[in-house]
C-alpha cells in the first residue's frame, strides 16, 4: 500500500499514472511533434456541391426564366384585377406597373395563354 502511494507521488518513468507500461516513442519521429492546424482561411477549400440545374443563374440573366417570370406576373395581375378591381385602379407609380401588366393580360389574353402553354410545355420537357 505504501508502495502505491509513493508511485502516485513520483511514478517511475516507464509507468504512466494508471500503472501500465507504455511503449516509448523515439524522439526523432515526426509523430512526436504535434501537428499545427491551418487557420480556416488558409485551409484547402472544398468545391461547392454540384447543383441539380446545369445553369444556376438568376431569373434576370436567364432568358427562359425571365420570360416565365414575366408571364406569371401578367397572369397574376390579370387574375387579381378580375377578382379585386379596386387593387389595380391607379395607373401611375408602383401600382401602375401592375395595372399595365393586367392590361396586357386583358387585351392580349389569347397570346398570353399561348405563351403560358408553350412555357409550361418547355419547362416540363426541357
Observed structural traits:
126 residues, 4 helices, mainly alpha
Question: Can you walk me through this structure?
Answer:
- There is one protein chain.
- By secondary structure, the protein is an all-alpha fold.
- The protein has a domain of 63 residues.
- It is built from 4 helices and no strands.
- α2 crosses α3 and α2 packs across α4.
- The longest helix has 21 residues.
Distance separating the two termini: 83 Å
Mean pLDDT, to the nearest integer, reads 75
Helix fraction, binned, reads 40-55%
| SSE-based structural type | mainly alpha
Order of helices and strands: HHHH
Specify Rg, calculated over alpha carbons. Answer: 36 Å
Strand content is under 5%
Number of helices: 4
Give the oligomeric state of the chains in this entry, treating copies of one chain as homo and distinct chains as hetero: single chain
What would you call the shape?
Answer: elongated
What's the count of strands? Answer: 0
Largest sheet: none
Unreliable sequence segments: none
Function: Involved in the early part of the secretory pathway.
Region (Disordered): 1-54
Biased composition (Pro residues): 41-51
Main location: Golgi
Summarize the structure.
The protein has a domain at 63-125. The protein is 48% helix and 0% strand. It has helices at 2-9, 63-83, 93-107, 109-125.
Question: What is the topological layout?
Answer:
Layout: H1 2-9, H2 63-83, H3 93-107, H4 109-125
Helix pairs in contact: 2-3, 2-4
